[in-house]
Write a structure and sequence with these properties.
The protein is an all-alpha fold. It has three domains: 1-82, 2-Layer Sandwich (Herpes Virus-1), CATH 3.30.40; 90-226, Alpha Horseshoe (Leucine-rich Repeat Variant), CATH 1.25.10; 265-400, Leucine-rich Repeat Variant (Alpha Horseshoe), CATH 1.25.10. It has helices at 2-7, 36-44, 66-78, 94-106, 112-125, 130-138, 141-149, 158-174, 184-188, 190-202, 205-220, 229-239, 246-259, 263-271, 274-285, 292-303, 307-315, 319-325, 333-349, 351-359, 362-370, 376-389; strands at 25-27, 33-35, 63-64. The protein has a three-stranded antiparallel sheet. Strand 1 (25-27) and strand 2 form a beta hairpin. Helix 12 runs antiparallel to helix 13 (246-259). The longest helix is centred in the middle third of the chain and has 17 residues, at 158-174. Residues 8-82 form the U-box domain. One of its GO terms (molecular function) is ubiquitin protein ligase activity. Its EC number is 2.3.2.27.
Length: 400
């Protein structure tokens, strides 16, 4: 009996890939947690999806799950099953437990500390496999979290921001398994919208990261309009942050790229300076392994679909050259494709764009791209651009 108990590991503490106890839990952008050695092996094999949800990974970064690591450490120290409140290895009491946690969050008699502790317990539960997240969703906790997150009315005390940060961190983990319809009223109710924008501008770095992910989720939801100028302005400001925090500005790029999917948002994005901000971001990323530069280029390509977008880029003295530098980047073929497509849009209509592209070294970049392992579609587009620029090819062999 003692040996069997020693070998039993709570489902919450098992890696979904190895099915063994986590040694170094890390969380992906989908909210799923894996043991670092096993998820790295999965990604190294060329897989670009989340093993549990099978969603395409838009971001390959891994965030250490310190909370789960802490609980595992406590469980190992006690040598027995460990759960914050209840022992429910089979999930039999999950509904009752969630109802109690939800009641704690809703009750006016609960102290701030009690609510914070309840949130931390929900956050731990949200680290588990999808079936438990569905239990969380059915309980209505996601909608409650959204209501709680944007009721601060512009307050920014340390205590309030700490509470909002925990609320949003939990909400983000529930997005893949939640009905996002409740986010619509955040956009349509002025007090909620004002709170959303305030937190984007004045919240902690973690709050801003969470809000960028919420904007991204809303942009992918066909039932929610996300072309509000205050939100767009606040997202763009993250790209222009004077300290150039690449993690935060990268989250802004992802949100901006998602916003570009809606035609109704493009005009406001361009008017608020999205093109210039994206070009500046790409320029800062030059010479780095910044994985968001390709995403920024994809956003620019979408903005160039509007006449205002083309005019905005051509007014930027570094616009065409920034795209040229993105034509060939090792391991970033999506960015390469968007750069080539963007240059095609510009060069088809503008002699000035063609001259800037050639003087910026686009011919060499295209030849390198054609020799790379990129797909046939990208190579076809590259050849089309070369043909378009053929009349400007240097005649002197020394310049080829």
């Amino acid at each position: 009996m003692k040996e069997a108990r020693k070998m039993w590991v709570p489902e919450l503490f098992r890696c979904p890939i190895s099915l063994d106890l986590f040694t170094e839990p890390v969380t992906l952008c989908t909210g799923q947690t894996y043991d670092r050695p096993f998820i790295q092996k999965w990604l190294s094999a060329g897989n670009l999806t989340c093993p549990v949800t099978m969603l395409k990974l838009q971001d390959l970064s891994m965030v250490p799950n310190h909370t789960l690591h802490h609980f595992i450490h406590q469980w190992l120290q006690t040598g027995q099953q460990f759960y914050p409140e209840h022992d429910y290895p089979n999930g039999s009491d999950i509904g009752i437990h969630l109802a109690e946690l939800k009641h704690t969050l809703e009750s006016k008699n609960s102290t701030s500390d009690q609510k914070l502790q309840a949130l931390k317990k929900i956050r731990l539960l949200s680290e588990d496999l999808p079936d438990r997240k569905e239990d969380l969703n059915r309980s209505g906790i996601f909608q409650l979290l959204i209501e709680m997150g944007f009721g601060g009315e512009g307050k920014s005390s340390h205590e309030i921001l700490e509470f909002v940060e925990e609320v949003l961190c939990v909400a983000i983990r529930l997005i893949p398994f939640s009905n996002l319809g409740c986010l619509d009223y955040v956009i349509n109710e002025k007090p909620k919208l004002a709170s959303f924008v305030f937190l984007l501008e004045e919240g902690t770095a973690m709050i801003k990261l969470c809000l960028c992910q919420l904007v991204e989720a809303m942009a992918f939801s066909s039932s929610i309009e996300t072309n509000e100028v205050p939100i767009i302005r606040a997202i763009i400001s993250l790209l222009n942050h004077e300290h150039h925090d690449f993690e935060l500005s990268g989250a802004g790029v992802r949100a901006l790229s998602a916003l570009c999917l809606a035609r109704s948002s493009l005009e406001n994005l361009i008017k608020e300076g999205a093109v210039d901000s994206l070009i500046a971001y790409i320029s800062r990323a030059e010479g780095t392994k910044n994985s968001r530069a390709g995403k920024a280029t994809m956003a620019i390509e979408r903005l160039l679909g509007e006449e205002m977008g083309k005019e905005s880029l051509m007014r930027n003295s570094n616009g065409v050259r920034a795209l040229v530098k993105m034509v060939f980047r090792v391991s970033d073929h999506e960015g390469s494709e968007s750069a080539v497509n963007g240059l095609m849009i510009l060069c088809c209509e503008s002699k000035e764009a063609r001259e800037e592209a050639v003087s910026g070294g686009v011919l060499t970049q295209l030849l390198l791209l054609l020799q790379s392992q990129c797909c046939l579609r990208i190579k076809t587009r590259a050849r089309m651009l070369l043909k378009l620029l053929g009349s400007m090819w240097p005649k002197d062999p020394k310049h080829v």
